[in-house]
Amino acid sequence: MTIRKAVIPAAGIGSRLLPLTKAIPKEMLPVGDKPVIEHTVRELVASGITDITIVVSAGKSLIQDHFRPNPQLVAQLRADGKAAYADAVEEVYELGRLGHITYLDQHGPYGNGTPVLNAARNLGDEPMLVLWPDDVFVAEVPRAQQLIDAYEKTGAPVLALMPMDPAESQRYGVPVVEETVGEGLMRISGLKEKPKTADAPSAYAAIGGYVVTPGIIEELRGQVDNWYTHRTGEVYLTDAINIFAAENPVYGQVIRGRWYDTGNPGDYLVAQFASALAHPEYGPLLRQLVEEQ
Prior knowledge:
The chain is of the alpha/beta class.
């Protein structure tokens, strides 16, 4: 089954970036000349995704405004002779149209599994991509397409992986690798969350891209039902994956490309700097600035 649907959970408050995110959703912070969530949407559309659900919370209206048409602004820009800017505004709307973006308010217990389950109720029993809007990937083949290709080979859930410095294992979920299939594809039996270096089961990190199948959605439903019964704990996608992987095939795909995390101040600045360095106009200016320091 070809994957055509995707979910972007965008309901978080961006606490690690406060006070920057007090009034601006973290998904709307710029990386280069685009807000970070636009990088994610572009990646999905370039990979053939035609139905994107963005799960939001209060205070996220700027995301909708960004992808919403603005004919008055376009007309004013064209009247002022600023055709290139008008084209850029229209192109962002066209991107949202191609991705058929819909928005859904998050409801349910705390945890990153909740927005996935919220969206799954509207998407039916199809496999779907889940990408966090904190990530920017620079790759010849989009990360989303690499995950789709892995799913088409295996017919099973797939996690995006990157090679990891073992000393950094306490920052990530680390997969338990059972079998190497080839071309960066490997069968895994679960994840260990933030293990000590000595306890890390592999030299890879799960970095926030997933192909989720109906079996994992069922595990999420079970977690949520349990939460409403006991009102304790949180609902996490990785917990559902671990439960599913105990009795079913799950795979990891090592992503070919460069990953930039924007979820904390240091990594966000690195992403900004790397994007600027790659720009044909701004890159030379920054290199000159560095040389002068």
